[in-house]
Structure formats: C-alpha cells, structure tokens
Design a protein that fits this description.
A hairpin with a 4-residue loop joins strand 3 and strand 4. 53% of the residues lie in helices and 16% in strands. Helix 2 runs antiparallel to helix 3 and helix 5 packs antiparallel against helix 6.
Length: 272
C-alpha cells in the first residue's frame, strides 16, 4: 500500500469516532482525533509520504505495537493521542480497523523519531490560518529543476515557490521519475477575496522592495492586498519560509480563468 492510501484510509477510523465524540460532548477526545488527522495532513503537505512509507515498512505489525522512546518525552497531545489509540486497539475487534490504528501509531512514532512534534502541533493548531504550505523557494525555475534532478530522494508530493508562483514537485521512487508543474494554490482564495472587495485602506508603495520591507513587520494573515506602483497585488505569507510572495491580481486571475477553462475542456474530452 502506498503511503497516501495508508494514511487516507485511516479516515474510516478517525471520522466516525471524531463525530461520535463530538456528538457526545467528549471534547478532548474529539480534539485528539482531529490532531491525528492533522498529523497525517502534515506529512502529506511537507512531502514526506515516501519517507513515512519506508518507516511503515520497517514496522512489523505486532499485537502490542512498539512505541518510540522519543514519544515518551513529547508533549501532552502526543501522549494522549497514543493512549487513545492503544485503548482503541484493545476495544476494536475488526482486523481492518486494527490496521488503521497501527498506521496511526506508526505515524506518531515517525513524527517522534524525526523530531517534528513542534511543527506538527503548530500545523494542527494554525493550519487554517496559513497559506498552502511550500517547502522551499527558488528564484528561478532552472534552479528548482537542477535541485529536483540532483536530489537523491526529493520530497513528494510537495509544493515549492519559484519566484512568486507555486509549483508541485512529484517523484516516483519505483522508477526514479520526477517532475514539476505549475500549481494554482492561492488563486481560488485570491478570486474569492477580490470578489468581496478590496479594503479601502489598502497600503500603497512605489516599489516592490518597499512593500516587502513593510510586510516584514506587518505580515499578511495569511493574505493581504497591497498596491505597488498603482497595481493591485495579493500578498501571501509563507510562514515556514519566512517570506511573502506577491501576485499581480489582474494577471493572476486571468491565468486562473484560463486554467479553469483548460480543465473544463479536458474533462469534456474525457467524457466524449
């Protein structure tokens, strides 16, 4: 089973238990199920699916799963999540559900052994306040392509920034194929926020450098509009990269409309 499937199918364990906990007023338990789902999403958006797959393959399924020694020193959320999973394992008779629990325990072990609990918890607490995650920035596409070509095991799938634009990396270890393509990650939010109306007190700057300097001390949360030389831009705060990207609204929305039309044409051809 590829890692995306392994993590994705745990939703059949998490979703009903989270819903039941919510309906029955068990707030702390409901929070832990959301936390476990968020950790899976964190592994996905940071391009660690194949790393997790390798980790999972090394984990031999046992009646009582091993627990990382690093996990014992982690924060309360991780410990409580582990205790919840161990109880669920004891109380669940179905083999398929037990397999999902084992995957989630392996996920906690993976996060613990790689020292990522702080980042994972931050993602859980604030993911709705963050822009789509980009794991790296390259000034030019050529530099990104060189990095992708030379990396022994590039993160996959993962978004990066090339200049101000999102791209998606992909890599298949089975045949060592890899590539990248333009990804319209923030244009939907830009479209919605623009339709709602640009704030009347939008900050205005003569140059991009002035706008970037202002955004350092006034970070977008995670989006904001700014005017640069009279042209409206959409500022996106990339907290992980400690930088902003700036997207000219008019040309970005035009490209987004063209992309949507292209997708519609492709879908029509597939249906014929």
């Amino acid at each position: 089973m590829i890692p995306h499937d392994a993590l994705a199918t745990t939703a059949t364990l998490i979703a009903p238990r989270r819903q039941a906990a919510s309906l029955e007023g068990r707030e702390e338990e409901e929070k832990l199920w959301r936390y476990l789902r968020a950790l899976g999403d964190f592994v996905h958006v940071t391009g660690q699916l194949y790393s997790f797959e390798a980790f999972l393959q090394k984990t031999a399924p046992t009646e009582q799963p091993a627990v990382s020694a690093c996990l014992n020193s982690q924060g309360s959320l991780a410990k409580l999540a582990l205790e919840l999973l161990l109880r669920t394992l004891d109380e669940t008779p179905e083999p398929e559900q037990k397999r999902h629990v084992h995957v989630l325990i392996a996920l906690l072990n993976f996060i613990a052994d790689t020292g990522q609990f702080a980042d994972g918890e931050d993602f859980f607490l604030h993911q709705l306040k963050y822009a789509p995650v980009a794991i790296a920035h390259f000034p030019h596409r050529e530099e990104a392509e060189v990095w992708l070509k030379d990396a022994k095991e590039p993160p996959s799938p993962a978004r990066i920034l090339v200049g101000d634009e999102y791209y998606q990396f992909w890599y298949t270890p089975e045949d060592n194929t890899r590539g990248m393509y333009r990804d319209y990650a923030v244009e939907p939010a830009m479209e919605v926020l623009t339709a709602r109306g640009v704030p009347p007190q939008t900050p205005s700057f003569d140059t991009r450098e002035e706008a970037e300097a202002w955004l350092v001390t006034h970070p977008a949360s995670p989006y904001a509009f700014v005017l640069i030389a009279g042209e409206l831009h959409f500022a996106v705060h990339h907290r992980r990269l400690k930088r902003h990207s700036l997207h000219p609204v008019a040309s970005a929305l035009k490209a987004w409309e063209e992309r949507k039309r292209a997708v519609e044409r492709e879908q029509t051809l597939e249906q014929e």
